[in-house]
Design a protein that fits this description.
Helix 10 packs antiparallel against helix 14 (271-303). This protein has two domains: 4-50; 74-303, MetI-like fold. A hairpin with a 3-residue loop joins strand 1 and strand 2. It has helices spanning 19-50, 54-58, 72-78, 81-111, 120-129, 137-146, 164-175, 179-187, 192-203, 205-221, 224-229, 239-249, 262-268, 271-303, and strands spanning 4-8, 12-16. Helices cover 66% and strands 3% of the residues.
Length: 308
Amino acid sequence: MAKNKEYNGSSGMVESLTPGDVVFNIINYLFFGVFTISCIFPFYYIFINTISDPGYVTSGQITLLPRGLTVQNYISMGKVNDLWNSVLITVARTILGTALMVVVSSLAGYLVTKKEMWHRQLWYRMLVITMYFNAGLIPWYLNMSMLGLTDSFAAYIIPGIVAPYNIILVKTYVESIPAEIEESAFMDGASYFTIYRKIIWPLSKPILATIAIFGAVGQWNSFQDSLILNANSPELYTLQHRLYIYLNQSSNIGAMAASGDVSEIASQLNTKIIQYTISMVTIIPILCVYPFMQRYFEKGLMLGAVKG
Protein backbone atom coordinates (compact mmCIF):
# COMPACT_ATOMS: atom_id res chain seq x y z
CA MET A 1 0.00 0.00 0.00
CA ALA A 2 1.43 3.34 -1.02
CA LYS A 3 2.34 5.88 1.63
CA ASN A 4 2.47 9.64 1.25
CA LYS A 5 5.77 11.30 2.10
CA GLU A 6 6.02 14.73 3.65
CA TYR A 7 9.09 16.86 4.32
CA ASN A 8 9.89 17.88 7.87
CA GLY A 9 12.59 20.51 8.13
CA SER A 10 14.06 19.19 11.36
CA SER A 11 14.03 15.45 10.66
CA GLY A 12 13.90 15.15 6.88
CA MET A 13 11.42 12.93 5.02
CA VAL A 14 8.57 11.56 7.15
CA GLU A 15 6.08 8.95 5.96
CA SER A 16 2.44 9.80 6.61
CA LEU A 17 -0.08 7.00 6.92
CA THR A 18 -2.95 6.72 4.49
CA PRO A 19 -6.51 6.16 5.78
CA GLY A 20 -6.16 2.49 4.83
CA ASP A 21 -3.01 2.20 6.93
CA VAL A 22 -4.74 3.77 9.92
CA VAL A 23 -7.70 1.37 9.64
CA PHE A 24 -5.33 -1.59 9.32
CA ASN A 25 -3.31 -0.54 12.38
CA ILE A 26 -6.45 -0.07 14.47
CA ILE A 27 -7.79 -3.51 13.51
CA ASN A 28 -4.36 -5.05 14.06
CA TYR A 29 -3.96 -3.54 17.54
CA LEU A 30 -7.53 -4.47 18.51
CA PHE A 31 -7.07 -8.08 17.36
CA PHE A 32 -3.79 -8.63 19.19
CA GLY A 33 -5.06 -6.75 22.23
CA VAL A 34 -8.09 -9.04 22.48
CA PHE A 35 -5.89 -12.07 21.83
CA THR A 36 -3.47 -11.04 24.60
CA ILE A 37 -6.29 -10.48 27.08
CA SER A 38 -7.83 -13.85 26.20
CA CYS A 39 -4.48 -15.52 26.99
CA ILE A 40 -3.88 -13.67 30.25
CA PHE A 41 -7.40 -13.60 31.67
CA PRO A 42 -7.65 -17.33 32.61
CA PHE A 43 -4.54 -17.02 34.79
CA TYR A 44 -5.78 -13.75 36.25
CA TYR A 45 -9.21 -15.21 36.99
CA ILE A 46 -7.73 -18.21 38.79
CA PHE A 47 -5.42 -15.96 40.81
CA ILE A 48 -8.11 -13.53 42.01
CA ASN A 49 -10.20 -16.52 43.11
CA THR A 50 -7.33 -17.85 45.22
CA ILE A 51 -6.94 -14.53 47.09
CA SER A 52 -10.67 -13.94 47.57
CA ASP A 53 -12.90 -14.92 50.47
CA PRO A 54 -14.10 -18.53 49.97
CA GLY A 55 -17.70 -17.44 50.45
CA TYR A 56 -17.59 -15.18 47.40
CA VAL A 57 -15.81 -17.85 45.38
CA THR A 58 -18.36 -20.51 46.26
CA SER A 59 -21.28 -18.28 45.33
CA GLY A 60 -19.65 -17.30 42.02
CA GLN A 61 -19.42 -13.59 42.82
CA ILE A 62 -15.82 -13.17 41.62
CA THR A 63 -15.65 -11.76 38.11
CA LEU A 64 -13.01 -9.09 37.43
CA LEU A 65 -11.75 -8.07 40.88
CA PRO A 66 -10.98 -10.04 44.05
CA ARG A 67 -13.33 -9.64 47.01
CA GLY A 68 -12.47 -10.13 50.65
CA LEU A 69 -8.72 -10.31 50.11
CA THR A 70 -7.08 -13.18 51.99
CA VAL A 71 -4.09 -15.49 51.74
CA GLN A 72 -5.71 -18.08 53.97
CA ASN A 73 -6.28 -20.35 50.97
CA TYR A 74 -2.53 -20.69 50.44
CA ILE A 75 -1.86 -21.03 54.17
CA SER A 76 -4.43 -23.80 54.43
CA MET A 77 -2.97 -25.62 51.44
CA GLY A 78 0.44 -25.35 53.09
CA LYS A 79 -0.84 -27.62 55.85
CA VAL A 80 -1.16 -30.47 53.37
CA ASN A 81 2.12 -32.22 54.07
CA ASP A 82 2.43 -34.22 50.84
CA LEU A 83 2.19 -31.08 48.75
CA TRP A 84 5.52 -29.64 49.90
CA ASN A 85 7.32 -32.95 49.38
CA SER A 86 5.99 -32.96 45.81
CA VAL A 87 7.22 -29.38 45.36
CA LEU A 88 10.73 -30.39 46.44
CA ILE A 89 10.72 -33.40 44.09
CA THR A 90 9.55 -31.26 41.18
CA VAL A 91 12.09 -28.50 41.85
CA ALA A 92 14.90 -31.05 42.17
CA ARG A 93 14.01 -32.85 38.94
CA THR A 94 13.61 -29.55 37.08
CA ILE A 95 16.99 -28.16 38.14
CA LEU A 96 19.00 -31.37 37.85
CA GLY A 97 17.26 -32.70 34.74
CA THR A 98 17.48 -29.39 32.90
CA ALA A 99 21.15 -28.86 33.80
CA LEU A 100 22.20 -32.32 32.62
CA MET A 101 20.12 -32.04 29.45
CA VAL A 102 21.69 -28.68 28.55
CA VAL A 103 25.24 -29.95 29.11
CA VAL A 104 24.72 -33.16 27.12
CA SER A 105 22.81 -31.41 24.32
CA SER A 106 25.46 -28.72 23.94
CA LEU A 107 28.33 -31.23 23.91
CA ALA A 108 26.57 -33.64 21.54
CA GLY A 109 25.47 -30.80 19.29
CA TYR A 110 29.06 -29.60 19.07
CA LEU A 111 30.47 -33.07 18.41
CA VAL A 112 28.16 -33.86 15.49
CA THR A 113 29.45 -30.76 13.71
CA LYS A 114 32.96 -32.25 13.59
CA LYS A 115 33.82 -34.15 10.41
CA GLU A 116 36.49 -36.03 12.33
CA MET A 117 33.83 -37.78 14.44
CA TRP A 118 33.67 -41.53 13.73
CA HIS A 119 30.60 -42.29 11.55
CA ARG A 120 29.21 -38.84 12.28
CA GLN A 121 26.42 -39.02 9.71
CA LEU A 122 25.28 -42.44 10.95
CA TRP A 123 25.00 -41.32 14.58
CA TYR A 124 23.28 -38.10 13.61
CA ARG A 125 20.71 -39.89 11.45
CA MET A 126 20.02 -42.40 14.19
CA LEU A 127 19.45 -39.47 16.52
CA VAL A 128 16.99 -37.84 14.14
CA ILE A 129 15.09 -41.12 13.57
CA THR A 130 14.16 -41.26 17.25
CA MET A 131 12.10 -38.09 16.76
CA TYR A 132 9.77 -39.84 14.30
CA PHE A 133 9.44 -43.38 15.66
CA ASN A 134 8.11 -44.36 19.07
CA ALA A 135 7.72 -47.91 20.36
CA GLY A 136 4.63 -47.02 22.40
CA LEU A 137 3.66 -46.81 26.05
CA ILE A 138 3.91 -50.49 27.02
CA PRO A 139 7.35 -51.14 25.45
CA TRP A 140 8.53 -47.88 27.01
CA TYR A 141 7.37 -49.01 30.45
CA LEU A 142 8.95 -52.47 30.02
CA ASN A 143 12.21 -50.86 28.96
CA MET A 144 12.21 -48.52 31.95
CA SER A 145 11.41 -51.44 34.24
CA MET A 146 14.27 -53.58 32.88
CA LEU A 147 16.63 -50.64 33.35
CA GLY A 148 15.58 -50.34 37.00
CA LEU A 149 13.96 -46.95 36.52
CA THR A 150 10.73 -47.72 38.34
CA ASP A 151 10.10 -46.42 41.87
CA SER A 152 13.23 -44.33 41.51
CA PHE A 153 14.03 -40.62 41.28
CA ALA A 154 16.40 -41.46 38.42
CA ALA A 155 13.32 -42.12 36.26
CA TYR A 156 12.83 -38.35 36.11
CA ILE A 157 16.41 -37.57 35.09
CA ILE A 158 18.03 -40.24 32.91
CA PRO A 159 15.42 -40.58 30.10
CA GLY A 160 15.45 -36.83 29.46
CA ILE A 161 19.21 -36.30 29.32
CA VAL A 162 19.39 -36.94 25.57
CA ALA A 163 16.94 -34.65 23.74
CA PRO A 164 17.29 -35.05 19.95
CA TYR A 165 15.45 -31.86 19.02
CA ASN A 166 17.60 -29.77 21.36
CA ILE A 167 20.77 -31.38 20.02
CA ILE A 168 19.71 -30.44 16.48
CA LEU A 169 19.10 -26.85 17.58
CA VAL A 170 22.55 -26.64 19.18
CA LYS A 171 24.20 -28.25 16.13
CA THR A 172 22.59 -25.71 13.81
CA TYR A 173 23.59 -22.83 16.07
CA VAL A 174 27.20 -24.01 16.39
CA GLU A 175 27.45 -24.25 12.61
CA SER A 176 26.55 -20.55 12.42
CA ILE A 177 29.63 -19.63 14.47
CA PRO A 178 32.51 -18.58 12.15
CA ALA A 179 34.89 -21.48 11.61
CA GLU A 180 37.86 -19.11 11.74
CA ILE A 181 37.44 -18.82 15.51
CA GLU A 182 38.03 -22.54 16.01
CA GLU A 183 40.82 -22.62 13.46
CA SER A 184 42.74 -19.90 15.28
CA ALA A 185 42.28 -21.77 18.56
CA PHE A 186 43.62 -24.98 16.96
CA MET A 187 46.66 -23.09 15.73
CA ASP A 188 47.29 -22.02 19.32
CA GLY A 189 47.23 -25.67 20.42
CA ALA A 190 43.72 -25.84 21.93
CA SER A 191 41.97 -29.22 22.06
CA TYR A 192 38.36 -29.88 21.09
CA PHE A 193 37.27 -29.86 24.72
CA THR A 194 39.11 -26.60 25.41
CA ILE A 195 37.47 -24.99 22.39
CA TYR A 196 34.08 -26.27 23.52
CA ARG A 197 34.54 -25.03 27.08
CA LYS A 198 36.12 -21.64 26.38
CA ILE A 199 34.64 -20.69 23.00
CA ILE A 200 31.59 -22.69 21.98
CA TRP A 201 29.87 -22.74 25.38
CA PRO A 202 30.10 -18.94 25.99
CA LEU A 203 29.05 -18.11 22.41
CA SER A 204 26.10 -20.52 22.59
CA LYS A 205 24.34 -18.90 25.53
CA PRO A 206 21.26 -17.84 23.49
CA ILE A 207 20.53 -21.34 22.20
CA LEU A 208 21.42 -22.91 25.54
CA ALA A 209 18.94 -20.61 27.27
CA THR A 210 16.34 -21.61 24.70
CA ILE A 211 16.71 -25.34 25.25
CA ALA A 212 16.91 -24.72 29.00
CA ILE A 213 13.43 -23.18 28.83
CA PHE A 214 12.17 -26.14 26.81
CA GLY A 215 13.68 -28.58 29.28
CA ALA A 216 12.57 -26.76 32.44
CA VAL A 217 8.97 -26.38 31.27
CA GLY A 218 8.87 -30.02 30.21
CA GLN A 219 10.29 -31.25 33.51
CA TRP A 220 8.03 -29.02 35.58
CA ASN A 221 4.85 -30.01 33.74
CA SER A 222 5.61 -33.72 33.35
CA PHE A 223 3.47 -36.12 35.33
CA GLN A 224 3.14 -39.23 33.13
CA ASP A 225 6.46 -40.64 34.31
CA SER A 226 5.43 -40.07 37.92
CA LEU A 227 2.00 -41.59 37.29
CA ILE A 228 3.31 -44.72 35.57
CA LEU A 229 6.86 -45.34 36.76
CA ASN A 230 6.53 -44.26 40.40
CA ALA A 231 2.93 -45.20 41.08
CA ASN A 232 3.98 -47.28 44.11
CA SER A 233 6.18 -44.56 45.62
CA PRO A 234 4.03 -41.66 46.92
CA GLU A 235 7.13 -39.98 48.30
CA LEU A 236 8.32 -39.49 44.69
CA TYR A 237 5.09 -38.00 43.34
CA THR A 238 5.67 -34.79 41.42
CA LEU A 239 3.66 -31.61 41.87
CA GLN A 240 1.73 -32.23 38.67
CA HIS A 241 0.89 -35.74 39.84
CA ARG A 242 -0.38 -34.31 43.14
CA LEU A 243 -2.41 -31.76 41.20
CA TYR A 244 -3.95 -34.60 39.20
CA ILE A 245 -4.84 -36.42 42.41
CA TYR A 246 -6.24 -33.32 44.12
CA LEU A 247 -8.32 -32.36 41.12
CA ASN A 248 -9.88 -35.80 41.14
CA GLN A 249 -10.23 -36.18 44.89
CA SER A 250 -10.42 -32.57 46.08
CA SER A 251 -13.51 -33.22 48.19
CA ASN A 252 -11.40 -35.46 50.45
CA ILE A 253 -8.39 -33.17 50.80
CA GLY A 254 -9.06 -32.72 54.49
CA ALA A 255 -8.03 -36.33 54.99
CA MET A 256 -4.69 -35.60 53.35
CA ALA A 257 -3.63 -33.02 55.92
CA ALA A 258 -0.85 -34.28 58.12
CA SER A 259 -0.99 -31.48 60.66
CA GLY A 260 -3.38 -28.83 61.97
CA ASP A 261 -7.12 -28.98 62.52
CA VAL A 262 -8.40 -31.18 59.69
CA SER A 263 -12.02 -30.09 60.08
CA GLU A 264 -10.96 -26.44 59.95
CA ILE A 265 -9.00 -26.97 56.73
CA ALA A 266 -11.87 -28.87 55.16
CA SER A 267 -14.28 -26.07 56.04
CA GLN A 268 -12.01 -23.39 54.64
CA LEU A 269 -11.33 -25.08 51.31
CA ASN A 270 -14.00 -26.27 48.95
CA THR A 271 -13.46 -28.17 45.70
CA LYS A 272 -13.24 -25.10 43.48
CA ILE A 273 -10.77 -23.25 45.73
CA ILE A 274 -8.58 -26.33 45.98
CA GLN A 275 -8.41 -26.61 42.22
CA TYR A 276 -7.64 -22.92 41.76
CA THR A 277 -5.00 -22.76 44.48
CA ILE A 278 -3.12 -25.89 43.41
CA SER A 279 -3.20 -24.69 39.80
CA MET A 280 -1.58 -21.40 40.80
CA VAL A 281 1.07 -23.21 42.84
CA THR A 282 2.09 -25.14 39.72
CA ILE A 283 1.96 -22.13 37.37
CA ILE A 284 3.62 -19.32 39.36
CA PRO A 285 7.25 -20.65 39.33
CA ILE A 286 7.35 -20.94 35.53
CA LEU A 287 5.74 -17.52 35.12
CA CYS A 288 8.43 -16.04 37.38
CA VAL A 289 11.38 -17.68 35.60
CA TYR A 290 10.33 -17.23 31.97
CA PRO A 291 10.63 -13.39 31.76
CA PHE A 292 14.30 -13.56 32.80
CA MET A 293 15.02 -16.03 29.96
CA GLN A 294 12.92 -14.23 27.33
CA ARG A 295 15.77 -12.06 26.04
CA TYR A 296 17.72 -15.19 25.07
CA PHE A 297 14.74 -17.23 23.91
CA GLU A 298 13.80 -15.46 20.66
CA LYS A 299 17.36 -14.92 19.49
CA GLY A 300 18.43 -18.48 20.24
CA LEU A 301 15.38 -20.07 18.64
CA MET A 302 15.65 -18.05 15.43
CA LEU A 303 19.40 -18.52 14.99
CA GLY A 304 19.12 -22.21 15.80
CA ALA A 305 16.47 -22.73 13.15
CA VAL A 306 18.15 -21.09 10.17
CA LYS A 307 19.64 -24.30 8.77
CA GLY A 308 18.39 -27.89 8.64
